[in-house]
Every structure is written in C-alpha cells, then in structure tokens.
Amino acid sequence: MSAREPFSIEQFYRFLQQHKLMAGKCLKCGKIHLPPRPLCDNCLSQEFEWVNISGKGKLLTYTVINVAPLQFHALTPYAVGIVQLENGLRIPGMINGIAQKQLKIGMELTLDFGTCSTTQQWPQWPRYCFKPPT
Amino acid sequence: MSKFGKHDGLLAREIFAEAAKEAFSRCPKLDPKQDIKAMFIGHMGEAYEHQGHMGAAVADWAGLTGVAATRTESACASSGAALRSGIYAAMSGLADVVMVGGVEKMTHRTTAEVTEYLAMASDFPFEQWHGITFPGLYAMMATAHMHEYSTTEEQMAAVAVKNHFHGSLNPKAHMQKEITLQAAMSSRYVAWPLKLYDCSLITDGASCIILTRPELACKYTDMPVDIIGSGQATDTIGLYQRQSLTSLNATKLAAKTAYELANVKPRGIDLAEVHDCFTFAELMAYEDLGFCPVGASGKLVESGETRLGGRLPVNTSGGLKAKGHPVGATGTAQAYEVYLQLTGQAGPRQVKDAKVGLTQNVGGSGATATVHIYRRDQ
C-alpha cells in the first residue's frame, strides 16, 4: 500500500472495508496507534507507517445496553465491550454470536469486519463487531 | 439556583433568569448591570432547544445585555469549566466581578433523544457509531470495577438510597422522596449492571454564582466563601484508549492541582459534592479524590460515613441522582450547595461546623474533570 494514505480515521475505516485492520506506527518512537492519528501522542512525531493488526483479542469489559438511541433501538438488548488486541491496542464494539449471560471478562473474541452501510450520508463506515472465535 | 425539575413551558434562558434573580438578591450590595463585567455559561446541547449561542441568550434574559458573555462547553462539566474560566478572568484582573453559571432544558425531549444528545459527549467514530451509550460507558467501568475489586450492585444502590435521602431534605431537588434499597435493586436495567435507579435524572435547571477577587469580596457581600483550590484536566476522548477502566485520571490530575493550591489533604475536606451521573461514578470519585483506598469505595458508602451525619457527607444536595442533572447547570449547582453549607444556610441538611468543601464535576466518560475546594471565610 502507498505511504500517501493519510493516517486518519476515515482511512482506517476504508481499510476495514477491505477487510484489513490497520494501525499507524510512529517511525520515531515506535508507538502503535489504533486508530491512527496525525500526531504521535507520545513523541509528537508526524511520521508513520501502516501495520497490520490481528483481529484476535480478549474482552476487557462489557455491558448489555437496554436503552438506546432510536437508531439502535431495534437491536436492544445488545452487548458492547472493549477488546484488547495485540500490543495492548484496544477498540470497542458490539459483541454478537454469543448468549449475553456467557460473556466473561478475559474471554477470547475475534473481529468480524461487517459490512459498509450503503447510505449516501456521511459517514460511510462499516460497523465491525466482535464474535467468539470459530 | 433555580428549582431543579420539570419546567414545562419555559426555555433555558427563562430558567436561568430564576437563578440569576436569586444570585442578585443574595448580593444586595452588588449592582449587577454596573459591576458584572464577564459571564461564562455552561450549556451542553444546542439540540435540546435548537438554540446555540447560549452565553448571549442568557445574558440578554438576565438583564445583562452588553456584558461579555461566553458559553463554555465541556459536556456535563460545562459549568465546572465555566467556574474555572471565571476564576481565570477575575484573577487576571480583566474583570473584577464575573457571573459563572450554567443551564440545560431537557425534559421536553424523549428518553431516546436525550440518550442520543448526551452520547455526543463521547467518541463518535468508535463509541457512538457502534451503539455505545453514556450509561453503557459507565456500565463498562462498573463491570471492570466489580471484576477487579468485587464491588457489588448493592453498594451502587446504596449510593442511590443515600442521595435520595439527602434529596428529600432539599426543597430545590427534582426528586424529594426517599427510596429503599429494594426498590433500587429491583429497578430495570438500563445498561447492565446499571439500573434505572443507578442513573441520574433528566432535569431542567439553572445555577450561577458571582465571583470576585478575595480583596474585593466584602464590597459586594457579607458572606463570602473563598475558593482556595481549582483544578481542571482532560483524558482521552475515548474510554477505550485509557490505561485504567476503573478510575478517572482527569479527576486525579484536577484533584492533585486543587489540593496542592489549597494546601489541603483529602482528610481535611468536611463535605463534597461529586459527579454521581451514575451511582458507580460516585464510588469512583471516592477513590480518585483520595477519600478511601483504591477498591474500597463500596465499603465506604456502606459504612455510612458519606451520609449526612457521617465523617464526610457526600452529595448533601441529593447529587445528580436526586437533585437532578441538567447537565450544563450541574457544576455551578455543586458550588452553590457548598456555598450554602459553608455559610450555614443548608437548613435540615446542614453539615455541622463545615469549614472546607470540595466539588468534582466530570464531562463525558471522564475526558474532562474539574475539582474546586472552598473554605468558609473566617
């Protein structure tokens, strides 16, 4: 891939649409940013490279949401959590494919890339989710 | 402070006028139109009333057109940030007298709408986009705390019972009714493990206070309270980026600054108003403010020490839980309660011999926190 792709959240989601989980690695101090950012929060460097991140991780914490904004109302109750991936990177997301009573801190989960919404409105970001490994 | 509750038929600026009227009457030596040189007004959401630019709007309706008025927005810490901004203005000498306050009008919207508007204070691309709500964020912190320190849902409910008891003694509180532990425990889940009674109220209300430099205070009032410490800090906008999911680093940083400025230790605090947007948030505040060791907050609330009559009463106003949480108004409403307590005007909920008070106001899931420390003028 080209180094010209901006280290932006928009670009993160473009990669995700291509089923790639990509992070920005600082060329100066080595810190990996997920999502990528334009300025390293460790050393303020602006030089990065893209690195591929595995979608395998462990559940750090979770909840089951019963009261949601209208847009998500039809999905209630739904589980969301924060998942720790390799290198200590963390992202939040919905957790599907498991009975909510079986959720446990520390359990293994895998990122499912999901599909991009077809709406013409901003933003056109895919809604990934986490699932137990098959 | 206005009455907190449901103000049908009134707009935010009109509710703010009620708070301003009280502030003027409490400072009979102040000529508001002449003396007030700046206003900082906390207001979180223009979506509620389709009204941005709230600084100018409330200045106008408070009869203060012409005064330099600015809206401060730091989510639920908007008026904590207004207070801090007012201190900058007064202490810099640019404005001798400053009005700081906040307002929010929320109850005319549906719960789904309010849930959506409040969530705007969290990270959009990774939290809101994936359906994570505000209760959801605090629920995830509570889940992690329960896992790490064996904190229980009963201990969270004990915060609700205590704060509703305090609220029953506050004629300006939204809910002035005591609740039982059983009622709190049997309420329905909003975001597991947080139930309806773990959540603060959707409320209309406004609050404000008048600030000046210490050497000028006696010109305007016979009952001044000194603000001896002030701290404000930030954390990552996304909860998921934080090292700890069981504490708020912004609170810790702001508290450190405020304690150092005030030269006061946590054990020197006589009462505190903390940001109990959810019952669990009050437990976390005990730990982050140094009121108890890390992990021991559940036991602290159960001990009764933070109840009126205890060693360190917390949220004697009823807190966000019972007094209500009109988000933009909360920070200066906390300051108003501490002012009442330190000047002996808190009526049936008066803390005996209160000399030093603390307020902690949190924005979002903890990306902003302000901490202020107050002392009774001798």
Provide structural commentary.
The complex is a heterodimer of chains A (134) and B (378). Chain A has 134 residues and is mainly beta. Chain A has two domains: 9-52, no CATH class; 56-131, no CATH class. Chain A contains two helices and eight strands, in the order αββββαββββ. In chain A, a hairpin with a 5-residue loop joins strand 5 and strand 6 (90-95). The radius of gyration of chain A is 16 Å and the shape is globular. Chain B folds into two domains: 12-108 and 208-214, Thiolase/Chalcone synthase (Peroxisomal Thiolase, Chain A, domain 1), CATH 3.40.47; 115-200 and 225-376, 3-Layer(aba) Sandwich (Peroxisomal Thiolase, Chain A, domain 1). In chain B, the strands form three sheets. In chain B, strands 2-1-3-6 form a four-stranded mixed sheet, with helices on both faces. A four-stranded mixed sheet of chain B has the order 7-10-9-8. In chain B, 63% of the residues are buried. Strand 4 (56-65) of chain A pairs antiparallel with strand 4 (189-192) of chain B, so a sheet runs across the interface.
Q: What layout of secondary structure does this protein have?
A:
The complex is a heterodimer of chains A (134) and B (378).
Chain A (H helix, E strand, L loop, with lengths): L8 H9 L4 E5 L5 E2 L14 E5 L3 E10 L4 H4 L4 E7 L5 E6 L12 E5 L16 E3 L3
Parallel strand pairs in A: 6-8
Antiparallel strand pairs in A: 1-2, 1-3, 4-5, 4-7, 5-6, 7-8
Chain B lengths: L11 H15 L5 H4 E7 L11 H8 L6 E5 L5 H15 L4 E8 L6 H9 L14 H16 L3 H15 L13 H5 L3 E4 L1 E2 L9 E8 L4 H4 L4 E10 L14 H14 L8 E3 L5 H10 L8 H7 L15 H4 L7 H13 L13 E8 L4 E9 L2
Parallel strand pairs in B: 1-2, 1-3, 8-9
Antiparallel strand pairs in B: 3-6, 4-5, 7-10, 9-10
Helix pairs in contact in B: 1-3, 7-11, 7-12, 11-12
